[in-house]
């Protein structure tokens, strides 16, 4: 088989270039210009970043007609696991490692920030009257990536109303709920809280310091506490009953938002083999179990003051979970490895929230993806572009409804199908597992 | 123990093998000269365009075959010895069988154009065709595609994705107007031209000229000469049966089979593109080179082989395709010239490339078919209306049941009813929502 590689436009390699240039910039700022940063430079950085992403998107889509445009995806280096993909993955991973474990190298200093972090002090003061932390800097970049890659996504899928609206939704939740509102809360001396972020994804919800901080903040704190509990036990299951887990995973969640926007060029990289499905179940449910045990332990210690539960130190458990799952898995592997493993590695293999919502989705939900009779030509576009690694084609060619715990309802399988075979639908719960109205054989 | 030998690992042969395996543990072998593993022919274009890799075209994991004891053999069969129940391959191997299933597929039509044997002239059907086109691509400065059917436009889109200029020669007055009503054909012609394809309607190829055995130019029937380095021949396909000419097997255009897919020779069967049905429903054709017919034939034959008498029933006609960015679906009877007693209601979105056509019988007011561009309809609902001979007015008032577009897409129902009103003067009230509840209820009723 000859290599299918020739393509006039280099497309996504430009993106690799932007990403690498961005990290080079960070490095430079930190190394050489440590002391000559002027206070407005964050504006220029953000401007540069926004303009380069929009410019790239404009260049890519301005001459294209609306419609699915995955031309050259497997030819371009960044999106086909070539050296540029590795380079980008390594750069991203390094940034994450610094961010999580050695923020001092990014300039975080108790006696006054320097380098990259110092650049964002003015913005941080503007928003919350405090110096920037590494999380603040990260939050700014994160939000920006979602906003501008979100624009790119909307451009690419502009013919599809579901994709447009869904993307606007994640952009909105990221900008306000995850970024601006919590910062404003801090400014008003209220507890930092992202209302849409619920346990077990934010595993610290039941941590002593978090509960104390809520309890010490008067009625608003109590509201957060009660709302958080309601989210977990009432609101979320209810929404999942009506709409499937997509209401959260691809309309609201911040991890999902980054995967859907900045991660979109990598969605075809997720492994579709039966083995990866096995691995998925071997990881995600034990992690959920772990988070539950950890939370029980933490709560137990909080209530009783006992540091151990059944001979295990609850704080050590909490620490290990935070390190391995909370940081290393969700941050470093989850995002750093987009260009190698696809955009939803964390959501698929690790996220305990996805696990809970998935169980709910599978057991009781009105959501499914229906298939259109005998139209499927087994072309495999749907499976290729499913970021959750679901072999959609296997269901579609049999004319079966797709009811899978892992489906985040992004709707991309339905969008890329050239024969109009798939539709995301909410309907009567009964029969969705078995019902296929017309025989396909 | 009955040994089943299937020639052809396309969708017909593979569907047959897979379903047969569910009935029996007896040996099943599948021979192909094209590829080691079954792949989706319909998706060849996506490999060329870089949407997918070759392995993504294989619907089943490679370990599936061994696990299910389906014996895959790579060989080219060159002769058939029906007397001794064996087939012989190019390298001299003999393969015996108790039952032989012919699933040989199609080959591209050629019309004996001068120059059609030159290097750079190719059909687009097989893995090998794709490889050939890939190899040539970096040198192509202009490609000419002869024939305007479904494969021709796929080839045009492929070249377009690599910025290779394309000229398309189409005999008819609009793209595919031998099949589509004129409004739709014209919409697609415009869509193609919008993509800067040099679409030449009412134009025929006269000859292909070469230099050193390679394509250099083509000559049109009007005498004009066009320089090009590649000529794609996509003037339809025909059953791949040349090898069987002169054998006792009865053939016409394809291998003749009855409704149980039996040929005139006992224990020899034919399915898929290579088969020609001796009796067909009025709305279907004797030879249909489409994906789901091949699949359904394979499944029906498997049941027959397992002793469950199952006639092949293609059901009500449906098909779908995509022309660049424009999706197309058809259900039921939609002739290109809609004549008495048929008539149709046609709605086209004022701005978008979207249209809906409902064909009905004016003497009985029964719905006959649907033709859709840029709009998705639900097959089960259309099927039920057509097979249940629903009245056009009922169909229209329930039309929302048929919509299959993703959530948040516009509701075309009011405009469609308005078109009906303008045509017939009848005012119809919408009565159904597009909710899945009502759809399922309707389908069960
Ligand atoms: C580019 C393209 C796009 C298409 N798109 C669509 C579409 O969108 N929708 C649709 O409905 N249909 C489409 N079709 C048609 C569809 O692919 C065919 O109808 C279908 O594949 C037929 O399946 P089959 O099993 O009968 O034959 P095939 O898939 O042709 O399989 C026959 C196999 O038998 C092998 N074979 C033949 N003779 C021998 C021999 N002597 N020895 C060994 N092996 C042999 C061949 O090499 C081949 O592998 C498309 C076809 C093409 C070429
Ligand atoms: S199955 Fe479809 S909707 Fe679900 S995650 Fe995969 S691509 Fe998205
Ligand atoms: S993309 Fe559509 S036609 Fe292709 S395999 Fe998936 S459901 Fe079938």
Description:
The complex is a heterodimer of chains A (441) and B (445). Chain A is mostly helical and 441 residues long. Helix content of chain A is 59%, strand content 3%. Chain A contains 19 helices and four strands. A two-stranded antiparallel sheet of chain A has the order 1-2. A two-stranded antiparallel sheet of chain A has the order 3-4. In chain A, a hairpin with a 2-residue loop joins strand 1 and strand 2. In chain A, helix 1 runs antiparallel to helix 2. The two termini of chain A are 33 Å apart. Helix content of chain B is 25%, strand content 25%. In chain B, a hairpin with a 4-residue loop joins strand 5 and strand 6. Chain B is an alpha/beta fold and 445 residues long. Chain B has a five-stranded parallel beta sheet with strand order 3-2-1-7-19. The two termini of chain B are 45 Å apart. The longest helix of chain B has 15 residues. In chain B, helix 1 runs parallel beside helix 7. The interface between A and B is large, with 58 and 60 residues. The complex binds flavin-adenine dinucleotide and iron/sulfur cluster (2 copies). One iron/sulfur cluster binds next to helix 17 and helix 18 of chain A.
